[in-house]
Write a structure and sequence with these properties.
Elements lengths: L1 E12 L2 E12 L2 E6 L6 H8 L7 E6 L2 E2 L5 H7 L1 E3 L3 H4 L5 H12 L14 H13 L15 H13 L5 E5 L7 H18 L3 E5 L3 H7 L2 E6 L2 E6 L1 H5 L2 H8 L3
Helix pairs in contact: 4-5, 4-6, 6-7
């Protein structure tokens, strides 16, 4: 079943064409990595897929609904989420409060944010479950800014999981952390997805070990176009694609 579909998408910023006729379909059970050199259009593609940017031409649909006509709140309630980077936006919030922001949004209780958090059982239940999945239970009352970089990344992803999505889009979920922490983040992420019913994962990622180690499918982007789309084995076997994407054969 196709969850997310882009059809002949173009995105212009003035005269600059950031996306040039991109078409793709993401189905249930897929873990898709979007790769490409800097400036290839990866983040722009994620922004269009999540409705942050409207396409200049073409269309994006999620579960048959036009993404460009939805705001992020409606999209999240329909079942799409992307990582928030709330740690950078609200560094003084505790881990518990950071996860609660997403949980409260998902439950449509935005006007009550923290005033009733202590007695809000649905929110507390989501916070406790997500924190447990991501190994953050012992750190619930720590300020987010005090976490290690690896735990900040986990908290970022955990906040998106608190929205109870069917499909999740992650922009560089392992950037800026050690090799050991990258593996930990991906292992926790994949395991959490199994336990929460997430049907598909899309990530933008530069680390090729992560890309080839966890993806079921890889989409290579270059100059705003899809250069290649296939299994890790198929992509690895295309030396011209590998040379373009990572600068070596």
């Amino acid at each position: 079943m196709t969850l997310l579909q882009a059809t002949d998408v173009k995105k212009f910023f003035g005269v600059f064409c950031a996306l040039d006729g991109v078409s793709l379909a993401i189905g249930e059970g897929e873990h898709v990595s979007i790769i490409g050199p800097n400036g290839a259009g990866k983040t722009t593609l994620v922004n269009v897929l999540t409705g942050f940017f409207a396409p200049s031409a073409g269309s994006v649909t999620f579960k048959g609904h036009d993404v460009s006509r939805m705001g992020p709140l409606r999209l999240s309630r329909l079942g799409m989420a992307r990582s928030f980077q709330l740690v950078n936006i609200f560094p003084m919030l505790t881990v518990r409060e950071t996860i609660a922001v997403a949980a409260i949004s998902n439950l449509g209780q935005g006007a009550r944010i923290f005033s009733s958090l202590r007695i809000n059982r649905p929110v507390c239940g989501i916070v406790d479950r997500v924190a447990d999945l991501f190994g953050l239970t012992s750190k619930l009352y720590q300020p987010a800014k005090s976490l290690s970089q690896g735990d900040k990344k986990l908290l970022d992803v955990a906040s998106a999981f608190a929205l109870k999505p069917e499909i999740i889009l992650l922009d560089e979920p392992t950037s800026g952390v050690s090799t050991a922490d990258k593996a930990k983040i991906m292992q926790v992420l994949v395991e959490a997805a199994k336990h929460t019913g997430i049907k598909a994962i899309i990530q933008v990622e530069h680390d090729m070990d992560i890309v080839f180690g966890y993806s079921s499918r890889i989409i290579a982007v270059h100059n705003g176009r899809i250069l290649a789309d296939g299994t890790p084995e198929a992509i690895r076997g295309q030396s011209d694609v590998m040379a373009t994407v990572i600068g070596r054969l």
